Amino acid sequence: MSAQCMLTGAQPGFGNRISHSHRRTSRRFDLNIQTKRYWLPSEGRHVRLRLSARGIKTVDTIGVEAAVARIRARGVKI
Length: 78
Hints:
α1 packs across α2. This protein has 2 helices and 4 strands. It is α+β, with helices and mostly antiparallel strands.
């Protein structure tokens, strides 16, 4: 599975790890991806979403119905 938020589309960032001697090696900034299970009343079932911490807060604000509509508008299958 990819480390990508289904709602926001956020992906890992890339950069450099810099040592004390200032040598640079590549590194990856991973997202705080979590799997959450929400009840979707319109379909009468639970949906399992892979969301970042910011995506979870967005679902709490706009509601699960609107969040699922946004995810489907992005072309992600649920």
